[in-house]
Write a structure and sequence with these properties.
Layout (H helix, E strand, L loop, with lengths): L2 E4 L6 E6 L4 H8 L10 E5 L6 H10 L2 E7 L3 H6 L10 E7 L2 E3 L3
Antiparallel strand pairs: 1-2, 2-3, 3-4, 4-5, 5-6
């Protein structure tokens, strides 16, 4: 998937860093206004929430990923330091073979 995550931050996967060679980086390149960045929270993976081991397993093995992502707080995006607050929830569409697939 191409992200460094924290599995112990809550009932989600906290993105620490997006790596340049993964499918999330490809998504970010194609969707500059909906980028997944450090501080973003992956809330759901292929319909699974609140089950961190299963969510991680799906990220590592599923051919198609349907992610629900909560964007990084604006404070963290501008300073790199989390100071609280959240912006609106964002939905990352399916990714197949390294390419984002938008719903029709």
């Amino acid at each position: 998937m191409g992200v460094d995550i924290d599995q112990n931050d809550g009932d989600w996967l906290l993105v620490h860093k997006v790596l340049s060679d993964g499918i999330v980086a490809k998504w970010n390149g194609a969707h500059p206004l909906q980028q997944v960045k450090g501080g973003s929270k992956i809330l759901e993976v292929n319909g699974i929430r609140n089950d961190i081991p299963k969510m991680v397993s799906l990220c590592q093995s599923a051919e198609v990923l349907d992610l629900v992502v909560w964007p990084a707080p604006p404070e963290q995006l501008s300073t790199g330091v989390f100071t609280g607050g959240f912006c609106n929830c964002n939905r990352l569409c399916s990714i197949q073979d390294g390419l984002a697939v938008l719903p029709s």
